[in-house]
């Protein structure tokens, strides 16, 4: 069976570790289509946080506490840059991580598409699944906030909002710059067409899943495809398990609940994307019109627990 997973960073990576554990037992093939909206240029390097979180997690190189960057990291280059006053000083690339960024940036500058760069990096990390960016084109999430000098609104890059301001500036709008013209990356449409099921990882719905679905040809292929689409709720009992998804949801006027996120994604039969919505047992009362809802424990405490979630999602999609 072929399983396609739409994913962001930390939540996506942990979910994919469970999908891979399931697939190792069954022989299923797994393709992850990962958000690139967080991607940014800093210090002349192209940074792709969600792709790297997935690659390092599945390749055994992640720092498990942070959920981004490398284990056993040192920060000499970051400290040296700060001594030059080289901005941004609020964002840090570790010394080991910089090697990945040098390889990526060199390949992009030589003309390789991001999907080819990801494949080359995965030759080293061997994630055990096919890892694809949602698009090879520029697509960046920008956040509209009130200008600090009171002169109206301004758009800042997602990383500035998330890392520098810790999502504390009220977000008025999220813009996926470039989404209008972005095409699915090489391999994405083929994967969706061949899929037996599409799963939405329990990733941030507003800034991880939405930018993937903002690639219109990708969304169209998912919506018009024959594979069932099952989402897994990132919200348990009214709060994000980790991170600041609540801040993102309030910005788009969506209740921070499994039901709120399920309704935001919506039924495929009513202009949305979902056939099934997997929620935690704490949210068993969830109702999403037109969508089959099932409640099971959704805590990704280890790969076995996550693989059990994956089996429940496959059953909900009718392919388990
Ligand atoms: P990011 O790109 O690094 O922010 O990561 P993602 O967007 O892929 O995932 C972040 C989301 O994962 C958070 O909003 C959490 O709600 C969700 N999450 C983290 N751990 C768990 C878990 O154990 N269970 C569930 N259901 N969701 C989780
Ligand atoms: N997150 C931080 O909170 N501070 C950082 O300095 C930081 C650096 C960083 C470098 C490379 C990378 O791939 C990720 C990095 N992140 C950092 C995490 C990250 O940018 C965000 O958590 C995500 O984009 C949200 O998914
Ligand atoms: Ca992300």
UniProtKB/TrEMBL annotation:
InterPro entries: CofD, CofD-like_dom_sf, FbiA/CofD. It comes from Catellatospora aurea. Keywords: Magnesium, Transferase. Its EC number is 2.7.8.28. This is 2-phospho-L-lactate transferase. It is an enzyme of class 2 (transferase). CDD domains: CofD_like (cd07186). It comes from the Bacteria. HAMAP family: CofD (MF_01257). One of its GO terms (molecular function) is LPPG:FO 2-phospho-L-lactate transferase activity.
């Amino acid at each position: 069976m072929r399983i396609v997973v739409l994913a962001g960073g930390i939540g996506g990576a942990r979910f994919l570790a469970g999908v891979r554990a399931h697939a190792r037992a069954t022989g299923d093939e797994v393709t992850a289509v990962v958000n690139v909206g967080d991607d940014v240029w800093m210090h002349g390097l192209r940074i792709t946080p969600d792709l790297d979180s997935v690659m390092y997690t599945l390749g055994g190189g992640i720092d498990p506490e942070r959920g981004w960057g490398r284990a056993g990291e040192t920060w000499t280059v970051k400290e040296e840059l700060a001594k030059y006053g080289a901005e941004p000083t609020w964002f840090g690339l570790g010394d080991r991580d910089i090697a990945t960024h040098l390889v990526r940036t060199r390949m992009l500058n030589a003309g390789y598409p991001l999907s080819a760069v990801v494949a080359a990096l995965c030759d080293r990390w061997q994630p055990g699944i096919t890892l694809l960016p949602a698009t090879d084109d520029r697509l960046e999430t920008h956040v509209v906030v009130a200008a600090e000098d009171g002169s109206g609104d301004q758009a800042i890059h997602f990383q500035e909002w998330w890392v520098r301001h810790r999502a504390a500036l009220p977000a008025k709008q999220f813009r996926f710059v470039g989404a209008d013209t972005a095409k699915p990356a090489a391999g994405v449409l083929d994967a969706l067409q061949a899929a037996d099921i599409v799963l939405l990882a329990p990733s941030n719905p507003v800034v991880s899943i939405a930018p993937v679905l903002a690639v219109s040809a990708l969304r169209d292929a998912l919506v018009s495809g024959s594979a069932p689409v099952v989402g897994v709720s990132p919200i348990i009992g009214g709060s994000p398990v980790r991170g600041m998804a609540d801040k993102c949801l309030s910005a788009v006027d969506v209740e921070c609940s499994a039901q709120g996120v399920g309704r935001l994604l919506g039924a495929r039969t009513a202009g949305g994307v979902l056939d099934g919505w997997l929620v935690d047992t704490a949210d068993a009362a969830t109702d999403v019109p037109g969508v089959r809802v099932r409640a099971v424990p959704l805590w990704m405490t280890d790969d076995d627990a996550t693989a059990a979630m994956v089996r429940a999602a496959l059953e909900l999609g009718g392919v388990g």
